[in-house]
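Subject: design request, 171 residues
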């Protein structure tokens, strides 16, 4: 050790600690820090699902592009139930087989931000002809770190109910 006064050493140590705190990485998102809201517009013969993802944490998170930016479904994304009968509505849309997700399959959701996106599901589910009330649900997931693709965290499931009058089947 040199002959520096104790006050200089103490000041240097405090400065080092303060510097470390300023540059520290925020902790990973806590459970519930990432959420979603679903809304359905079922007018004009269409069923449009609006998904809003919220990142309430101080860190960016990563959500699947298929949820946040897809223009059409490529697999069963939502669970839909006829509320009167309790029967599940079959998915009849496009199904694309694919390999495991990679980092390119995710979008960044910035800290303290939201992202909204609408998907037309009118022709992707076998809605019964005539007026019906449905419950649409979705339980997604997000990543806190793109380097840990296997460590997805669940987003609390969201659901909403809507009325839809599907046209009679064409003969």
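Subject: RE: design request

Done. Sequence follows.
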């Amino acid at each position: 050790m040199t002959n520096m006064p104790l006050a200089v050493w103490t000041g240097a140590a405090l400065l080092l600690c303060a510097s470390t705190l300023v540059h520290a990485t925020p902790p990973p998102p806590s459970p519930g820090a990432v959420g979603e809201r679903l809304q359905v517009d079922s007018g004009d013969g269409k069923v449009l699902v609006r998904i809003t993802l919220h990142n309430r944490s101080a860190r960016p998170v990563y959500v699947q592009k298929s949820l946040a930016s897809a223009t059409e479904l490529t697999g069963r994304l939502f669970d839909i139930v006829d509320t009167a009968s309790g029967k599940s509505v079959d998915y009849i849309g496009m199904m694309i087989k694919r390999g495991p997700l990679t980092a390119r399959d995710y979008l960044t959701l910035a800290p303290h931000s939201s992202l909204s996106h609408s998907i037309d599901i009118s022709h992707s589910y076998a809605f019964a002809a005539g007026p019906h009330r449905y419950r649409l649900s979705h339980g997604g997931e997000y990543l806190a770190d793109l380097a840990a693709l296997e460590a997805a965290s669940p987003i609390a499931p969201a659901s909403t109910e809507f009325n839809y009058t599907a046209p009679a089947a064409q003969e």
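The beta strands are 34-41, 48-55, 61-64, 79-82, 106-109, 113-120, 130-138, 141-143, 153-154, 158-166.
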